[in-house]
Design brief:
heterotrimer, A mainly alpha (300), B alpha+beta (536), C mainly alpha (306), A: 300 residues, B: 536 residues, six-stranded mixed β-sheet
């Protein structure tokens, strides 16, 4: 691997980290964040979806799995504001209740994948040498595997189901995170405050988690929010290929994929899940961008 | 700017259909699901394009993995006997044939003056050469299994004892023991030019040479297969210049191709999309009865499913009409026996009419008023998943809690063909179509007691001596009346025992431009384009 | 540089060997039996056994792997179990469509993505920034099968401008490459914006600006040029994903490419074809990485290869 030459200016010692009080930091963060309107709107939307995920089962007009064979594939009406699906189930109710399943699946998969990737990336970037090569070669192997095969293999070996889809999505989150965090770690490692900590005789593990890790948070957050979107889409793509999660439970991706045969006869079946997925993924991404800009100390 | 408006208008039009609701269709008796109003449309060219769902995965007629490959190979290959459009067997390369009294000797009188497309003659020697090619184990051909039965002890039993050629245009097959499906299987025995076989060996799939009305010019697996007219064909020459079979896996894309005119015929036409195609006035949607049986196997070894009452209750709990409406927009018929009505020897049975109260009553009698839990396996395609979800919804009415587990076909196979004590199967949402249209082909491997996994696919673990005996008797006679009687009784036994949830027989749906005639899809899902005509 | 190149190529061999082994074990671990797929659902146990024996599936796994590797080194990748074609015959015609599509998707997605990223970075915090990013992110916010089907509805069925599929003319490339490229555009747009924002704060950019250079010159020559390395890394990674992950676009637009072949072969448990495809993807991934590394040096001569 080629390594970029980092110019370390040894004389800039004086510019070490300032230590602002924690409280004022939160305040300052909030103030800066509120200035980014798209991020604020996105956050509100995400909070709304999360709220829905929690309360939807108690407030929606129909049970999400209540079939009505006399009202198949009906367009939006007063009785069913977003229409009904191929079983006569209420699309609105299913989508609202489905937010719980889709969001939690995407979140959990991303969290697991991120955690794995971050730990591997930190270790690889911080220790370098053999450990680094080993971890990065493993990531190469994972990268060289097409996502689809990984997912099919995971689902085929351990069987269909929500948990297994989450594992599949988590697995292909790991290598890209490991790579990104690794390069962030390398640049943080060479920065001044880590040098200082090292010269003060801190233990490696302490340097790694107390000093290096916080430095990588910024790149982590951006990728994390992006990955949540990817996870939602991945679940839907897996449905398309026949490896979806719970088919009988309401799930956005499955609804979109199963509804595609009605694209030209009952378009509401793909329109509403499509829009909801679109807005949610967009919101997570915009929120990520907002957070990134806010967290960046050099930006105002 | 104008164009953008057009796009917007198109999108809006799509959204508008939201409010139209759904049209209810009924199975069409005259074969038309939708009849084109524009009947004098003209084709712009004389090249037929057929868009199909799956893949033409082989052009070797003796090594056929799927129905599409059967359809494609029939463009350039012919058999001794063939099914016509009305599903009657008639001579093709054989002008006539006789069966001996003891059902052991089949004599075929071959058509004279037929030439393969490489110029060599078709004669009795060609028939023998093709038979010998198939049974040679070195060639690893799938069709070998038709003529050679592997025995449990590792030996092999040949169905054909001898093949003789008294003269150049007569072939006599002598069977080792009576086997009534033989003549139907002959409709899958294609004649390849022996000279070409000599030259190419098993690479013949890339260089097809037959006697058919078309010559295969290009076979690109996964994309297309192209044919052009055989100018030296022995019979009535084909009308279209070329035929292209295009593989289009996504249903929506296939429908779109018909709408844009890129395809002249699409198969299968998803019932869900018929409403979309009705706006085109030059498209016919055609429906034909099929040999497809849709059912759910019930593992009779499970304590809950041991009781006949439970299995019957489950059958009563399923609304067959709703199933047909939901799954096939009405283009299907409720199952009325263990085989579709198109199968030889079919006899209508007393239906399990949808009656939740009766089902609950039966469950109560069996002591399962509070129900139980079961898993339901099935393929992971959209349509199969939909069907499984429906079964779950129906059975929940009698407190049976069904867990739907869609899996890849290969994974299901692995889980099904296991030793009896390792069987995990509860219910399997599946379908079956016997390509030879015989009763034996339709039920033996699914319900005969000797076919319990891992031997074969009797996943209901249905064991009934009387049923077995009747099946064996049916196989030993070639007399249709006697067969009808034997098979009628067998059907009643299995129907009343209810080893399956009997669902329906869907119709084959395909759509074609109204200027296309003569091309059709047979009940077994094979499409025939040899007599296709494009109105000019 | 030449030496470095050779070293990289040589070091790829063990990686490929490891991958070949992992792939082999992996695919054989997935439940499913090709012999059953060939023989059919109604085949008896004995029939399946005959096929298993023919295919050599009864040998121990390691023996099978040994045979496979022996074949590999003599250039024999085996036969597809589906129809007896050799693996090379099966895969070769599928390469062109996928590669052509990948290239066409890559070209437009890179150009638009980078342009959006630069615009957003330059107009940071203003409405053009938001608009640019919303456009970019939209590309990664819809599943590609959905996008593809909607495009067919709009441009093929409603407007009848473009064909629904196939790769017969240049027009037929438009919709599939739009579908495939949308995600790449999003990733690149976003990434370009964030690296550009970082480089634009660097001292040399400030210096350039202070010297009174034109803003476009500052952006393009200084900020963009220095962001390019990271952008290329990300772009390189995306190509790998495109080659193997094109299955959705290939399915929706009926294109006989490698992605569809992979999924079909996995479904059929056509082991030899799957193995060969995965080895190809791995090799291609390694090659792209190598090209990216070499490009580093071209763009920034300060980088040393060691």
């Amino acid at each position: 691997m080629a390594q970029t030459n980092t110019n370390l200016d040894q004389n800039k010692f004086a510019a070490a980290e300032e230590l602002p009080k924690a409280q004022s930091k939160v305040k300052e963060f909030t103030k800066k964040f509120m200035k980014r309107k798209t991020a604020v709107v996105s956050l509100i939307f995400i909070l709304f979806i999360i709220l829905m995920a929690i309360i939807a089962p108690f407030v929606v007009p129909y049970a999400p799995d209540q079939p009505d064979y006399t009202a198949l594939l009906q367009g939006p009406s007063a009785a069913h504001i977003w229409g009904t699906d191929e079983f006569g189930q209420d699309v609105f109710s299913r989508l609202m209740v489905g937010s719980r399943l889709s969001l939690s699946c995407a979140l959990i998969a991303t969290v697991i994948g991120t955690a794995g990737g971050v730990v591997l990336g930190l270790i690889a970037g911080f220790y370098g040498g053999f450990v680094d090569s080993l971890i990065m070669r493993c990531c190469d192997v994972l990268f060289a595997f097409p996502d689809i095969l990984l997912a099919i293999a995971v689902v085929a070996i351990i069987g269909p189901g929500m948990v297994n889809v989450m594992i599949a999505v988590a697995v292909f989150t790991v290598p890209s995170f490991a790579r990104i965090i690794r390069s962030a770690t390398i640049s943080v490692k060479q920065s001044l405050y880590v040098e200082v900590a090292r010269s003060l005789g801190c233990k490696n593990s302490r340097i790694l988690f107390v000093h290096v890790f916080p430095g990588t948070i910024q790149s982590m957050i951006v990728n994390f929010t992006m990955r949540i979107g990817t996870a939602i889409l991945a679940a839907s793509s897996l449905s398309f290929l026949g490896f979806g999660a719970n088919v009988t439970e309401p799930d956005w991706g499955a609804m979109l994929s199963l509804g595609r045969n009605y694209l030209n006869t009952a378009p509401h079946m793909v329109l509403f899940p499509g829009i909801l997925i679109f807005l949610t993924v967009l919101a997570f991404n915009l929120l990520g961008d907002g957070l990134r800009d806010t967290l960046d100390p050099k930006m105002n | 700017m104008k164009n953008r408006k057009k796009v917007l208008a198109a999108l809006l039009a799509g959204v508008m259909t939201l409010s139209m609701g759904t049209t209810v269709f009924a199975a069409a008796e005259d074969g038309y699901a939708v009849k084109a109003t524009n009947t004098d449309a003209k084709s712009g060219d004389n090249d037929l394009v057929i868009a199909i769902e799956g893949s033409v995965s082989s052009m070797d007629p003796a090594n056929i993995p799927d129905t599409n490959a059967i359809s494609a190979t029939r463009g350039c290959y012919e058999m001794l006997v063939a099914f016509n459009k009305d599903q009657e067997l008639e001579g093709q390369l054989a002008e006539s044939w006789e069966v001996s009294e003891d059902s052991l000797t089949y004599t075929f009188h071959l058509r004279e003056g037929v030439k393969f497309s490489d110029g060599t003659d078709f004669n009795a020697a060609a028939v023998v050469a093709n038979y010998e090619r198939i049974i040679d184990p070195e060639n690893k051909l799938r069709q070998r299994r038709t003529y050679v039965v592997a025995q449990p002890d590792g030996t092999e039993k040949f169905r054909v004892e001898s093949i003789e050629t008294p003269d150049d245009y007569t072939v006599v097959f002598k069977l080792a023991e009576a086997w009534s499906p033989f003549i139907n299987r002959m409709s899958q025995f294609c004649m390849i030019s022996p000279a070409a076989l000599e030259e190419y060996g098993n690479d013949i799939m890339n260089h097809p040479v037959g006697t058919g009305p078309f010559i295969c010019t290009e076979w690109e697996e996964g994309d297309h297969t192209t044919f052009e007219r055989n100018e030296d064909y022995w019979g009535e020459k084909a009308s279209v210049d070329t035929v292209t079979i295009k593989e289009v896996p996504e249903a929506g894309s296939r429908t779109a191709m018909l709408q844009t005119g890129e395809a002249d015929l699409v198969y299968p036409m998803p019932a869900d999309q018929i409403a979309a195609i009705q706006s085109n006035d030059d498209v016919n949607v055609l429906a034909a009865d099929s040999n497809i049986m849709r059912y759910v196997t019930l593992n009779m070894d499970l304590p809950e499913l041991k009781d006949e009452k439970v299995r019957q209750a489950m059958n009563y709990a399923i609304d067959k009409d709703a199933y047909i409406q939901l799954m096939y927009s009405g283009y299907a018929k409720p199952a009325t026996s263990i085989v579709p009505s198109i199968i030889g020897g079919y006899k209508e049975q007393t239906p399990y009419t949808y009656d939740v109260e009766k089902a609950k009553e039966l469950m109560k009698e069996a002591g399962y008023e509070d129900g139980f839990k079961l898993t339901l396996w099935g393929d992971n395609t959209t349509q199969e998943v939909k069907g499984m979800t429906f079964i779950k919804q129906m059975l929940s009415q009698i407190n049976i809690d069904v867990e739907v587990l869609p899996m890849e076909p290969a994974t299901i196979s692995d889980k099904i063909y296991v030793e009896k004590e390792d069987a995990e199967i509860n219910m399997w949402y599946v379908n079956w179509s016997a390509s030879d249209f015989t009763m034996d082909g339709s039920v033996r491997s699914l319900l005969h007691s000797s076919m319990v996994p891992p031997t074969s696919a009797n996943t209901a673990y249905y064991v009934n001596e009387d049923f077995d005996k009747l099946l064996d008797e049916g196989l030993a006679t070639a007399d249709p009346d006697k067969q009808a009687e034997i098979y009628g009784e067998a059907q009643t036994i299995a129907w009343e025992a209810a080893p399956w949830l009997f669902l329906g027989n869907d119709q084959i749906l395909y759509a074609a431009k109204s200027y296309l005639s003569g091309a059709y899809v047979s009940p077994d899902g094979a499409f025939n384009f040899t007599h296709a005509e494009l109105a000019q | 540089m030449g030496k470095y190149f050779c070293k990289r190529v040589v070091s790829a061999i063990p990686l490929l060997l490891v991958i070949s082994f992992v792939v082999f074990m992996f695919i054989h671990m997935i439940p499913g039996d090709p012999a059953r797929m060939i023989a059919g659902q109604d085949a008896t146990k004995e029939d399946v056994e005959v096929v298993r024996e023919q295919l050599g599936l009864n040998d121990p796994l390691l023996v099978q792997y040994g045979n496979y590797m022996k074949g590999l080194f003599t250039g024999d990748l085996g036969d597809s179990v589906k129809n007896g074609k050799t693996v090379v015959e099966t895969i070769a015609p599928r390469m062109k469509p996928t590669i052509m599509l990948t290239i066409s998707a890559m070209i437009w997605a890179t150009i638009i993505g980078i342009a959006l990223g630069i615009i957003s970075a330059v107009f940071h915090g203003r409405s053009l920034d938001y608009i640019g990013m919303i456009i970019a992110i939209s590309g990664i916010s819809v599943p590609s099968f959905w996008l593809g089907l909607e495009l067919i509805q709009g441009f093929s069925v409603a407007l009848n401008w473009l064909p629904t599929g196939g790769l017969d003319s240049w027009q037929s490339y438009i919709l599939p490459s739009l579908t495939m490229g949308a995600g790449i555009m999003a990733v690149l747009g976003r990434f370009t914006r964030s690296t550009m924002l970082e480089t634009m704060r660097e001292d040399y950019v400030r210096t350039a600006r202070a010297k009174g250079l034109k803003e476009t010159l500052v952006v393009m020559r200084h900020a963009f040029k220095n962001s390019l390395i990271e952008i290329i890394t990300v772009a390189g990674l995306q190509i790998g994903g495109l080659l193997s992950g094109s299955v959705m676009a290939e399915t929706v637009f009926s294109i006989p490419g490698l992605g569809r072949l992979l999924v079909d072969s996995i479904n059929f448990r056509d082991y030899k074809v799957v193995q060969a495809l995965l080895l190809f993807f791995a090799a291609e991934y390694i090659v792209i990485n190598l090209i990216v590394d070499v490009l580093y040096g071209v763009i920034n001569p300060k980088i040393r290869y060691n």
